Amino acid sequence: MPIDLSEFDVPGRGRGILDVFRRKYLLQLLVRKGTATRYRNSVLGWVWSYVKPAAQFIIYFFVMGVIMGLDRGVENFPVYLFSGVVAVNLFNEAFGNATTSIVDNRALVKKIYLPRELFPIAAIIIAFIHFLPQLAILLLVCFLIGWTPTLIGLGGALLGILLVTAFALGLGLLFAGLNVRYRDAQNFVELIRMFSTWTSPVLYTWMLVQNALKNHEWMFHIYTWNPLTVAVELFHQAFWAGTVPPPAAGEPDPSIMPDFGIAVLIASLICVVMLIIGQAVFRHFERSFAQDL
């Protein structure tokens, strides 16, 4: 009598990220575990989700706003600064957590088979959960200074979050696979995270970059295609632009980069390509995760 095996999976084989959607319960367990253990045995607990970005903001504001004088050159500079900081913080935490997710869960990876992509994706979700308190503070400050939300602006913010998480997931899958066999890959991750704040218009405006590269326009275009640059500018348009008066006739609008629509499309394409490359590299190294760990 023939046996129907259509409902069974071949052990050790999967369909990558698509398998995650078939195991939502496991994903929920990993997310709960990550959020529950993050601040375990900590006195302040979840308060650190507010303290860390607040300390970072104070340092950046003092150096760039007070010492460098951008506080006088950009109206509502604290909102401009913090809206960029929260976007980059989401990327840095998501990317960093995804990179170490396989190594951090080596006990599970070595004992049982389950889609390994569950770990980087759970790390991205956990980073997003810790991003929400920062976003709540940003929204509160914007409302206090008279911010009026718009559907286009809020849609842009959602697109910015999507770009950040997709870019972080693609890079996270790539380096998570490499990090299992080559632990020095994590050093490259730290370099990328360090550069992320300075290679996107968080501490300065895109117009300063345009003026510095006026004789090398192609370099400025590459700068504007960076998914983080696009995401930060989407956050600026969503939160900061609604707190400042529109520019006078004939003056450039500091909230909209040149050819911004094209930059959004190219940045989205880069995120898709990075997801494909990251998944391919991850699946290549996945075969020997248990042995390498």
From TrEMBL:
The keyword 4Fe-4S is annotated on this UniProt entry: no
In this chain the ABC transmembrane type-2 domain maps to 44-285
| Iron-sulfur keyword on record | no
Keyword terms, alphabetized = Cell inner membrane, Cell membrane, Membrane, Transmembrane, Transmembrane helix, Transport
The protein's matches in Pfam families, at most eight in alphabetical order, are given as: ABC2_membrane
Location in the cell: Cell inner membrane; Cell membrane
Record membrane topology: Multi-pass membrane protein
Q: Any transmembrane segments, and where?
A: 43-67, 79-98, 118-146, 152-176, 188-209, 260-282
Name the source's superkingdom.
Answer: Bacteria
Annotated family: Belongs to the ABC-2 integral membrane protein family.
Q: What name goes with this protein?
A: Transport permease protein
> What is the organism of origin for this protein?
Microbacterium istanbulense
